[in-house]
Amino acid sequence: MEAHPTFSIERSKQLNNMGISGALSSSLSVLPIPPEEMFPKLPESQLDFVEQELMTVPLTHSSYFNSSGVVGNIFSSSPGYSTDLQHSSLSPDEKNSTNAHFITQSPSNTAQFPLPYSSNTGPPTSATPSHYSKENSTSWHADSLPSFLDFPANGSIDNNRVESSACTIMPSEEYCKQNDWQEWAEQLISDDDALTSNWGDLLTDNIQDLEPKVSKPFSQFPGHQSQGHQQPPAALYGENCTGAAQSSPANSAPAKSRMRWTPELHEAFVEAVNQLGGSEKATPKGVLKLMKVEGLTIYHVKSHLQKYRTARYRPESSEGAMEKKTSSVEEMSSLDLKTGIEITEALRLQMEVQKRLHEQLEIQRNLQLRIEEQGRYLQMMFEKQCKPGTSSTIETPSGVSSNTTRDFLDKNEMEASQVDQGRSGPSQVNGSASMEEGSPLEKEGEKPDSPKTQHAIASNDSAQAPKRQRTE
Amino acid sequence: MKFGKRLKQQIQESLPEWRDKYLSYKELKKLVRLLSSTPPTLLNGSSLEQFAKNEAEFMCLLNTQIDKFNAFFVEKEEDFIIRHMEVQQRIKRVIDLWGPNGSHPSEADYKEEMAKIRKAIVDFHGEMVLLVNYSNINYTGLAKILKKYDKRTGGLLRLPFIQKVLEQPFFTTDLISKLVRECESIIDAVFPAEEEAERAKEAKEAITVAGEGIFRNTVAALLTMQEMRKGSSTQSPFSLPPLNFPDSDFIQSIHLNAAVPIV
After folding, report:
1. Which residues 121-150 on chain B approach chain A with CB closer than 8 angstroms?
2. Chain A, nearest residue to B17 by Cα
3. Is the Cβ pair B212, A326 closer than 8 Å?
4. Mutation test of the interface with chain B: which of A333, A352, A361, choosing the one with the most B Cβ atoms within 10 A?
5. Which ranges in A7-117 belong to alpha helices (H)?
6. How far is CA B146 from CA A46, B48, B58, B152, B159, in A?
7. Each residue's pLDDT tens digit in chain A (472 positions)?
8. A29: which chain B residues are within 8 Å (Cβ-Cβ)?
9. Does residue B186 belong to the interface with chain A, where contact is any CB pair within 8 Å?
10. Cα separations (Å) of A280 from A285, A310, A312?
């Protein structure tokens, strides 16, 4: 049997603490690339400027952001592992000590990536995003650890969704802020202290905020922002980032900052419009004033009002906006039908197919999320193995730990195979060799299920099979 | 080129205004091919420069893709939010006006309006689902391209980049899915109850009606999804298991009976 990086569930919490530095270092090695990618459009000159700026930033400073950024990334992506890593336990002092650890690593890591400007541009972009991913994920994790371990399909899905949507704001913010790097860099230098103190506030406040999460993913930024912003049930790209580090990059480029509307926000909008006498009478300025949403600009309201007017006008005057989009052939043939019943049936059919597609998409998405999670998990394991200081992890009995992995993968496949069950038989017209693989596997699924069989059903993944074999 | 072909098919089947919003898979693939396979640490001088240039171009394109997805997705999402509320209000208005308990009960008007609403709402549902599909297929394409990149250059781009992608607005389709489900419950309320036997009889005729547009796109999407997951030469722990769902015969038959053959 190969030496396999293994953990028991009981140990995982302990190991997480040790694992921080390992994970941090590994993540740092990859961190330079991702943030850089978010700003490809920066002309070279601007990059140089930023580079210079950052060179002057004291090393601990940037590494602070690195660590927070990295930790933030981990948090936002590895649900079960970091519950113990409550930020309160990671005081700034600790952060700095771990920083020293991966500062030394970073030069060697950047050598791998022939993008001279990438590593330097990492820190500022990760700073703000991490702020929020951390913020959200803290409150999320306490909730999610039990569900992660049980791994009920729905529970973890919801958590994943919340988490992913809650963390959405940050990267999107990056896209908008391309022109404001210089301001960012300057403000980073000056705002470090403010940020440090804010961590504590934000985190302790957020931990309370677990409940209404799933239904309102974007409203999870509580009203405890450092500037004491009133937080409406809204999700604005610009808003939260301005709350934390910079004062006003969003306002400096209003036309560009993209806004993500939510039903709640829209309701508030409609309220305001109605108060002003309807969609025709209401003006963007008036609506903006009435809505009293921080960070909402008149441009957002204007474009939204335009869409709103279009949507209202067309259903009343014609068959409805969406109907225009579908081909007219469909409408003509439906007019030719004798009775309304047939139309209704056609619609039912369409509905069924649409439902089916949606179902499949959701399943697929969850699988994809889990696969990536698993990949991250493996990555972490490998990193830990490579690190000299964590030899104790290797000594855990392989049987126990592989069960964890197996359970994890089991759940993956169980969900996929749930869809497989109930199939009457192979149906693909496009017969190919791979199809034949599908049928025998699928038939196995109808036998009484044991975990092993379930593995066999759902995947042709040969790489997963060896994992089983190792543990047997 | 299997995915590329599938993607192309999907794009062809999709609604016109969506067609240029999908992933530029082919271009990205070309750029990956241009990248040298010698590890960057071993390159020097002009070849290193060249590599850096190519890589930068690749990254740039990758990021513009993501921007494109985000912009489109968020805009459509906004539209859907507005439409969702509108549909509900429209139904309410019709019921209040022409419904049995309304202010001007009129069965004819009521029925006619309801029929229109039914069509509108089913199409609305369909469009939302197609947006989710859009998100998914672009994600899949990105994952594939990143895999190719890593394979070609020996780099470690895939894992961290995908983590970032998972957080992007265009991938977080929860709100849309929620709207879809709400739509489904509205539809259940709005559709009259039918006898099972009658339904089976009508279903056959219904097939000929549902030809173009959203429905066609949906069918194509489902089949594409199935095809893509049938099993590839490069199965790995990161691959999705094969997709099998009941009634895929039926869906295949719809597909084949469509007015315009789907090549």
Report:
1. 122-127, 129, 132-133, 136, 139-140, 143
2. A325
3. yes
4. A361
5. 9-30, 33-37, 44-56, 59-77, 92-112
6. 27, 21, 10, 10, 9
7. 444 444 344 444 443 444 444 443 444 344 444 444 444 444 444 444 444 444 444 444 434 334 443 433 433 444 444 344 344 443 444 444 444 444 444 444 434 434 344 344 444 444 443 444 444 444 444 444 444 444 444 444 444 444 444 444 444 444 444 444 444 445 544 444 444 444 444 444 444 444 444 334 333 333 343 343 444 444 444 333 233 333 344 444 445 678 899 999 999 999 999 999 988 899 999 999 999 998 899 999 999 999 999 988 876 554 443 344 444 444 544 454 457 778 888 899 999 999 999 999 999 999 999 999 998 899 899 889 887 665 544 444 444 444 444 555 555 555 545 544 444 333 333 333 333 333 333 333 333 444 443 443 343 344 443 444 444 3
8. 156
9. no
10. 13, 11, 10
DSSP A278-316: STTT--HHHHHHHH--TT--HHHHHHHHHHHHHHHHHHH
CA angle B195, B197, B201 (to 5 degrees): 115
Chain B segment 55-114 residues within 8 A of A by beta carbon are 55-56, 59-60, 62-64, 66-67, 70-71, 74, 77-79, 81-86, 90, 111
Closest CA to B83 of A384, A261, A159, A59: A261
Residue A179 tokens read as 């022109």
Tokens standing for residue B258: 């469509």
CA distance B104 to chain A (A): 18
Contacts 24+ apart (CB under 8 A), A278-284: A279/A305, A279/A308, A279/A309, A279/A312, A280/A309
**A259 pairs with which residues across the strands?**
A236
A343 touches chain B (CB under 8 A): yes
3-state secondary structure of A45: helix
Q: How many CB atoms lie within 10 A of CB B206?
A: 23
B157 close contact with A: CB closer than 8 A: yes
DSSP assignment, residue A167?
T
Which residues in chain B have Cβ-Cβ distances shorter than 8 Å to A356? 222, 245, 247, 251
Closest chain A residue to B222, measured at CA: A357
At position A424, the amino acid (one-letter code) is S
In a mutational test of the A interface, the residue from B87, B112, B244, B263 whose CB has the highest number of chain A CBs within 10 Å is B244
* pTM of the complete model: 0.56
| Other C-beta atoms lying within 10 Å of the C-beta of residue B184 | 16
Provide the sign of the torsion angle of the four alpha carbons A124, A125, A129, A134, taken in this order. negative
Contacting residues for B225 by C-beta, under 8 A, at least 6 apart: A357, A360, A361, A364, B133, B136, B243
Which residues from chain B sit within 8 angstroms of residue A437, using beta carbons?
231
Interface size A-B, in CB pairs within 8 Å, comes to 350
Nearest residue to B161 via CA among B175, B172, B176, B150: B150
The phi, psi pair for A69, rounded to 5°, reads -65, -45
Q: In the beta sheet, which residues pair with residue A236?
A: A259
